[in-house]
UniProtKB/TrEMBL annotation:
<protein>
    <recommendedName>
        <fullName>Mycothiol S-conjugate amidase</fullName>
        <ecNumber>3.5.1.115</ecNumber>
    </recommendedName>
</protein>
<keyword id="KW-0378">Hydrolase</keyword>
<dbReference type="InterPro" id="IPR003737">
    <property type="entry name" value="GlcNAc_PI_deacetylase-related"/>
</dbReference>
<dbReference type="GO" id="GO:0016811">
    <property type="term" value="F:hydrolase activity, acting on carbon-nitrogen (but not peptide) bonds, in linear amides"/>
</dbReference>
<feature type="region of interest" description="Disordered">
    <location>
        <begin position="1"/>
        <end position="20"/>
    </location>
</feature>
<comment type="subunit">
    <text>Monomer.</text>
</comment>
<dbReference type="GO" id="GO:0010127">
    <property type="term" value="P:mycothiol-dependent detoxification"/>
</dbReference>
<dbReference type="InterPro" id="IPR017811">
    <property type="entry name" value="Mca"/>
</dbReference>
<keyword id="KW-0862">Zinc</keyword>
<feature type="binding site">
    <location>
        <position position="142"/>
    </location>
    <ligand>
        <name>Zn(2+)</name>
    </ligand>
</feature>
<dbReference type="InterPro" id="IPR024078">
    <property type="entry name" value="LmbE-like_dom_sf"/>
</dbReference>
<comment type="function">
    <text>A mycothiol (MSH, N-acetylcysteinyl-glucosaminyl-inositol) S-conjugate amidase, it recycles conjugated MSH to the N-acetyl cysteine conjugate (AcCys S-conjugate, a mercapturic acid) and the MSH precursor. Involved in MSH-dependent detoxification of a number of alkylating agents and antibiotics.</text>
</comment>
<dbReference type="GO" id="GO:0010126">
    <property type="term" value="P:mycothiol metabolic process"/>
</dbReference>
<dbReference type="Pfam" id="PF02585">
    <property type="entry name" value="PIG-L"/>
</dbReference>
<keyword id="KW-0479">Metal-binding</keyword>
<feature type="binding site">
    <location>
        <position position="12"/>
    </location>
    <ligand>
        <name>Zn(2+)</name>
    </ligand>
</feature>
<feature type="binding site">
    <location>
        <position position="15"/>
    </location>
    <ligand>
        <name>Zn(2+)</name>
    </ligand>
</feature>
Length: 289
């Protein structure tokens, strides 16, 4: 089998470990070359782990997040590339304040697109993953990540566009990750109840509009990757400033997750090869697997 390559495009360091991480670990383990591209340095991330809220951490976020990212990539067994743009931060307030000068959210779309096209033409992935048009989470960099990824998927194949950014390459398939699913959360919550425990997800489920059903309406592809859930959690914990190891998302035992929901979910957004949905493998239709 010739070499297969997967590129996952993310907004910030840590996003790769919370969205599709077990899938990447699985493919890397199976010999696929996996490259994570992170658009920003995550410089404006808050410290979300009380244990890391230390004087020596403040003011050194950019540097610390580089180290955390390197550790996470090593745990997942993937290659990593920084695209070099600046985190927009999550604007809070009503109305929200304008985005800071020079950040990813305000630079012209062509700049990060050209930079990503260059990486696509060099790495030549068969499959790319990114977020849907809502960003999966309403952060301006996540929306931007979607826009940049879709633009680069199209432009990388077009020799008329960005001619100085390498020889054209046709990525075969583009996927959106869909990890935040009500059905999965409900199953885990019910499992806590079965053991007479109060699950951590009630506050999420209570406000979740059942009509907003990404799983039924958008998921096309479920990748079995239960064996890699522990690796996913270790990678996430490597982002120590961003992740509280005592947080809600680590409370459901891995054994429950493996038994109740052993997959990660994707939506096939674009394809240049014939497909038949649903699928269980991001590379279906590309090679004999
Ligand atoms: Zn993010």
């Amino acid at each position: 089998m010739s070499e297969l390559r997967l590129m996952a495009v993310h907004a910030h360091p840590d996003d790769e470990s919370s969205k599709g991480a077990a899938t990447m670990a699985r493919y890397a383990d199976e010999g696929v070359r996996v490259l994570v591209v992170t658009l920003t340095g995550g410089e404006r991330g808050d410290i979300l782990n009380p244990a890391m809220d230390l004087p020596e951490v403040h003011g050194r976020m950019a540097e610390i997040r580089r180290d955390e990212m390197a550790k996470a990539a090593e745990i997942l067994g993937v290659e990593h590339h920084w695209l070099g743009f600046v985190d927009s931060g999550l604007p809070e307030g009503d109305p929200p304040p304008p985005l800071p000068d020079g950040c990813l959210g305000v630079v012209p779309l062509e700049h990060p697109t050209e930079a990503l096209v260059r990486v696509v033409r060099e790495f030549r992935p068969h499959v790319m993953t990114t977020y849907d048009e809502n960003g999966g989470y309403p952060h301006p960099d996540h929306i931007r990540c979607h826009q940049v990824s879709v633009a680069a998927y199209e432009a990388a194949a077009d020799h008329r566009l960005y001619p100085d950014a390498g020889d054209p390459w046709e990525v075969r398939k583009l996927y959106y990750t869909h990890g935040f699913l009500r059905q999965r959360m409900q199953l885990l919550q019910d499992e806590f109840a079965k053991y007479g425990q109060e699950g951590p997800f009630a506050k999420w489920l209570k406000h979740w509009d059942p009509d907003h059903d990404v799983f039924a309406k958008r998921v096309t592809t479920r990748v079995e990757c239960a064996k890699y859930f522990a690796q996913r959690d270790d990678a996430l914990r490597a982002h120590a400033t961003q992740i509280d190891p005592n947080g809600d998302f680590f409370r459901a035992p891995i054994e429950w997750q493996q038994r109740l929901w052993p997959t990660e979910e994707y939506e096939l957004a674009r394809s240049r090869v014939p497909v038949s949905l649903p699928e269980t493998d991001l590379f279906t239709g590309i090679e004999d697997r």
